[in-house]
Amino acid sequence: IDSNIAEELYELPCDEEWEINRAQITIREQLGEGAFGLVMRGDAVGLTDMPSTCSVAVKMLKADATENELADLLSEMDTMKEIGRHKNIINLIGACTQHGPLFVVVEFAPHGNLRQFLRERRPSEYQYNRLSYSAASLTIRDFVSFAFQIARGMEYLGTRKCVHRDLAARNILVGEDFVMKIADFGLARNVRDLEYYRKTTDGRLPIKWLAIEALFDRVYTTQSDVWAFGILLWEIFTLGGSPYPGIPVEKLFDLLKSGYRMQKPQNCPSDIYDIMLNCWDENSTNRASFTDLRKQFDSMLSSMA
Ligand code: ADE
After folding, report:
1. CA 305 – CA 300 distance, rounded (Å)
2. CA–CA separation, 265 vs 232, rounded Å?
3. How high is the pLDDT of residue 85?
4. Cβ < 6 Å from ligand 1: which residues?
5. In this predicted model, what pLDDT tens digit does every residue of 26-48 receive, in sequence order?
6. What's the CA gap between 263 and 275, in Å, rounded?
7. Nearest CA owner, ligand 1 atom 6
8. The model's pTM
9. CA separation, residue 166 to residues 109, 188, 214 (Å)
């Protein structure tokens, strides 16, 4: 009887303001697979304030989802409604809650996640050897622009009292015109059950983004998001590198406590490395705020025009 949470056994409340007629959405290929659900690309027709047909991303439960997973997806949708719209976040478009499985419809980001995006733009051996420069190669100014946009999105989430808890390049999506969009900010994260040793789908350990106080005391605040932002800056300037390469998790606790921090990436300007080091200050109150960070990157952009 409880075997089909993903289908229509549960009657969900209908929010007229956000309800989308399922006939308007055609599910296409899979984009991603999360802890409890799937993200599919969909084609949507006749959405208000959208082109006549457009791509959307559709979050849904897997066939074997539990009641708790349904509750989490509903809670994520409600959080997205409460947070409101911003250019630098993945915005909610609406939902199909009636006459079939729950679809949470969000903006589609055509360039995928920032980690992959950066890795695909690493100069190839060919380019090194042949001195050929593709038009698509990224500049320091592009990196500063990415950092500025992410800081601006995080500043907005902060004003809405949202702590992300998993800020990383894998959770930034790259939209039309290379607009940076923070994803998965609405996830209900059970911090107590956090599995430190569970790897992400790309084999990396999320604990390598955790602030020292989150790691030791499970204290998650906007200032622990700032630490993660420092790691994300490091990911940007290494074109999608894996933080603390070769360092096992068991070593990380003692290393960080003893004051060890990652080195300056090659080709990273020292003023930007100074920002990383400030994000990784042991004392969370010494770290810049996202407003400070947004302003710093904005003034760097002006000076690089
Ligand atoms: N993968 C997961 N969510 C996505 C989205 N909104 N757009 C593009 N790819 C995604």
Report:
1. 9
2. 12
3. 98
4. 31-32, 39, 57, 90, 106-109, 112, 173, 183
5. 999 999 997 679 999 999 999 98
6. 13
7. 108
8. 0.92
9. 19, 11, 11
Q: Which of 60, 139, 135 is nearest to 103 (CA)?
A: 60
Ligand 1 center from residue 168 Cα (angstroms): 15
Is 166 assigned a catalytic role? yes
Query: Which ligand 1 atom is the nearest neighbour of the CA of 110?
Result: 8
Please tell me whether the interface predicted TM-score (ipTM) of this complex is above 0.90. yes
Show the tokens assigned to 247. 């360092």
- Report the alpha-carbon angle 167-171-173, nearest 5: 130
CA 17-2-32 angle, 5° bins: 60
| Ligand 1 probe mutation, 173, 180, 182, most atoms within 8 A of CB | 173
Nearest CA among 262, 300, 278 for reference residue 143: 300
Nearest partner of 19 among 90, 81, 107, judged by Cα: 81
C-alpha of residue 281 to centroid of ligand 1, in Å: 32
User: Do the beta carbons of residue 45 and residue 52 sit within 8 Å?
Assistant: yes
At 131 the pLDDT is 52
Centre of ligand 1 to C-alpha 286, Å, is 34
Count other C-beta atoms under 10 Å from residue 227's C-beta.
25
User: How remote is the CA of residue 138 from the centroid of ligand 1, in Å?
Assistant: 22
